[in-house]
Amino acid sequence: MKYYEVDFTIAATEELMQDARDLLAAQVGEVGFESFEDTETGLKGYVQTALFDKESLDLTLQSYYLPGVDITYTVTEAEDRNWNEQWEQEGFKPIVVSSDDREISVEEGAERGEERSLFKPVIVIHDGRHLPEELSFSSEETNLHPLSIEIDTHLAFGTGNHETTRMMMVHLLSLPLRGKRVLDCGCGTGILGIAALKLGATEAVGYDIDEWSADNARHNAVINGVDASFTSLLGDSSILDNVEGVFNVVMANINRNILLADMPAFCSKLADGGCLLLSGFYTEDIPYLTEKAQSLGLTLEHQRTENDWASIILRK
After folding, report:
1. Fewest CB atoms within 10 Å of the CB: 13, 183, 217, 236?
2. Which CATH number is 279's domain given?
3. Per the confidence metrics, is the pTM higher than 0.85?
């Protein structure tokens, strides 16, 4: 994964410097910057080379509204290294995602060979070092039906640790996915498409602009035994022009600006009556996204928030 390192020099008094850093990080985070570190002269920000937009960055800095502060910057290519190396070595403990209002009937259970008459599906996300057998459920939770998803993270976003991924998984748990076709835009590790398949979807297509992510999603589909129904593509939303047919569920967990720009493309692949699941943005961004959605003939059906992050379900 290729990144630019942008070194922001902030001309501000000592008293204003930290506020200036915080405000700058918040604003440039809206144009694709993913991580930051303080420097003696200001702030360093990191953005994927494919997402770097100098014009948008300059416009953002022009609208910077802290009086008495001046900002300049330089751009260099960041060291090409495995940013997730420590994460990959240590792995992560199993993560449980459940829905409070979704139960599967005896008929659906019978299709899966399940003997219980009624149960709730629970997604257990884990890596190869921490297996789901490490978890135990209380006696009051005997109706739970754990669905195991193993994620081998190689430079890709999506393990369930982040609020936005968890909220997207909860939305999937709330939807009837059996027999449905799903599309994951910006698929990262492929976790959402894999979850949809394990919840009964018949086909999942994902794409990502990052080659590492597209390959990692394909790898994770293999280790979860759903590769026959999972397709991982390399590219941005323009690749949808080459994808046949429409989808019952379209998912995108990306930043607000990309969601706004690509929503028409998402809608073009969404079947009538289908759902568009969006996350990757903050609570205050919901009005911007719902306004765009309404202009495309979509209606807001449900929304969730967690620690200022938000997700929404839109219906066509």
Report:
1. 13
2. 3.40.50.150
3. no
